[in-house]
Design brief:
The strands form 5 sheets. This protein has a 5-stranded antiparallel β-sheet, with helices on one face. The chain has a 5-stranded parallel β-sheet with strand order 9-10-13-14-15. A 4-stranded mixed β-sheet has the order 3-2-1-4, with no helix packed on it. The longest helix has 18 residues, at about 215-235. A hairpin with a 2-residue loop joins strand 18 (about 430-435) and strand 19. Helices cover about 30% and strands about 20% of the residues. It has 2 domains: about 5-60 and about 385-450, Urease, subunit C, domain 1 (Roll); about 65-370, TIM Barrel. It starts with 14 loop residues before the first strand and ends in a 6-residue tail after the last helix. It has about 450 residues and is an alpha/beta fold. It binds zinc ion. Zinc ion binds near residues 161, 162, 188, 240 and 241.
Length: about 450
């Protein structure tokens, strides 16, 4: 994903970002030109560039989400690649990995190339399709992994997310197959028989509410099996949305043993607990479910000590009719792109566990590395692609519908007070979002047509 072609075009707005604070605490001006970071230093002169006053703002490399559901093709009433890209830009993201549970599923070269092209024409972020592990995510036979890897979409991450690849032989074969092109299997770890009809975390509260429980062991047993399979075949495993203290223990053990495993946690599992289920508000229904206070504490510690490598949103848009109903009938999932940085700020920065350099690592550098995206996750340095998020850590806002930029509004944070706000996002040197306002699709699409988006 080279952006070397950028220099050939003159469609960029030159920008001078004045007085931003880098993740390590250094204050600097940042000049963007021709899609790259052209100059760093203090007292830079505008020389014709648009000036953005970044006093008090933290400059982060553009955020990279390894796990989002953009719903297109097939579920455009929930989200489209365009609307999901706008939600991403609102949240400071410059790249989004699009999960494979579309209709048709992203299980062939043709479908992943279609999603890639939709992302290119939207132009807000790099949309990198994830390939399905099995045909139709049905868990019966391997999809065309090699064809997706060698397609124009250059797929490296494969996942049946939404479903677990529960058949151990299929999982073994998938892990073996992707070694040829340094791919990774991103597993949704959920033992299906142990979680049939599950409605919330299994524990005292599920007993009290009379809801069928989703036991921690259903996640932990699959992770334990998969890390041993990855070790056995010498392949790379990524664990999606880790949600329990026991899972953190299993992954910590696997890493100490030298197994090639990475793991993600969602913002909501770092902040919210199962107690929210008491109100039967389906905005809090998600899979894996919200867990106990002890699980949340263990996830925070696991992220801080590096057992959990990254934060990924699991952005899962649903229309109102799928959420404004009885708890049992409601769909699982929450939108998360627009709120991610503020929620992570509240959960692990405000609590002193992580600093902004850690945030750069877990929300930009490492997800880009796991997913094999060379043009993303680079440090803010002269010559790096101009992928940036400017974040105001001192802001406080009551999160509302106006903060959402996608099609669906199933956010668990509506009417909650959250710290911080993303003030601007730059993708390929172009401001995709300024002062909370996502740039118009027409402007962005015109910009995207003027650049070579995939080398
Ligand atoms: Zn999942």
């Amino acid at each position: 994903m080279s952006i070397d072609g950028l220099q050939q075009h003159d469609v960029h707005e030159p920008w001078l970002i004045r007085g931003a604070t880098l993740p390590d605490g250094t204050r600097t001006d940042i000049r963007l030109a021709a899609g790259r970071i052209a100059e760093l230093g203090t007292g830079l002169s505008p020389s014709g560039a648009r000036v953005l006053d970044a006093d008090g703002l933290i400059a982060l490399p553009g955020l990279v989400d390894l796990h989002a559901h953009l719903r297109e093709p097939g579920y455009e009433h929930s989200e489209t690649v365009l609307s999901g890209s706008r939600a991403a830009a609102r949240g400071g993201f410059t790249s989004v990995f699009a999960m494979a549970n579309t209709l048709p599923a992203q299980d062939t070269a043709g479908v992943v190339e279609q999603v890639l092209a939709l992302g290119e024409s939207a132009g807000y972020v790099d949309v990198q399709p994830i390939g399905a592990v099995t045909v139709g995510l049905a868990g019966k036979q391997l999809a065309e992994l090699g064809a997706m890897a060698s397609s124009r979409a250059r797929v490296r991450v494969f996942s049946d997310d939404g479903f677990c690849v529960s058949d151990p032989l299929l999982m073994r074969r998938a892990l073996e197959y992707v070694k040829a092109f340094d791919g990774v299997i991103a597993q949704h770890s959920q033992e299906p028989r142990l979680t049939e009809k599950a409605q919330m975390n299994e524990g005292a509260l599920s007993g009290e509410l009379g809801l069928i429980g989703w036991p921690a062991v259903a996640e932990e047993s699959i992770i334990a099996r998969d890390v041993l399979l990855a070790e056995h075949v010498g392949s790379r495993l990524h664990v999606c949305h880790v949600s329990t203290a026991g899972s953190v223990d299993v992954i910590r053990w696997a890493k100490a043993r030298g197994i090639n495993v990475t793991a993600e946690v969602t913002p909501h599992h770092l902040l919210l607990t199962e107690d929210l289920v008491r109100g039967y508000d389906a905005r809090f229904k998600v899979n894996p479910p919200l867990r106990s206070r002890e699980d949340v504490e263990a996830l925070r510690v696991g992220l801080a000590d590096g057992t959990i490598d990254i934060v990924a949103t699991d952005h899962a848009p649903h229309p109102a009719e799928s959420k404004d109903c009885e708890w049992d009938a409601a769909a699982n999932g929450m939108v998360g792109l627009e709120s991610a940085l503020s929620v992570v700020h509240a959960a692990v920065v405000a609590t002193g566990l992580l600093d902004w350099a850690d945030i750069e690592r877990v929300l930009s550098r490492t997800p880009a590395r796991i997913g094999g995206l060379a043009g993303q996750g680079n440090p803010i340095a002269v010559g790096s692609p101009a992928e940036l998020a400017l974040y105001d850590p001192a802001a406080t806002r009551v999160f509302g519908r106006a903060d959402l930029a996608g099609t669906s509004s199933n956010s668990p944070y509506l009417s909650m007070t959250l710290p911080g706000d993303v003030r601007a996002t730059f993708h390929r040197g172009y401001a995709t979002m300024l002062d909370g306002a996502v740039r118009s699709s027409l402007e962005i699409a015109g910009h995207a047509r003027g650049v070579v988006t995939h080398g």
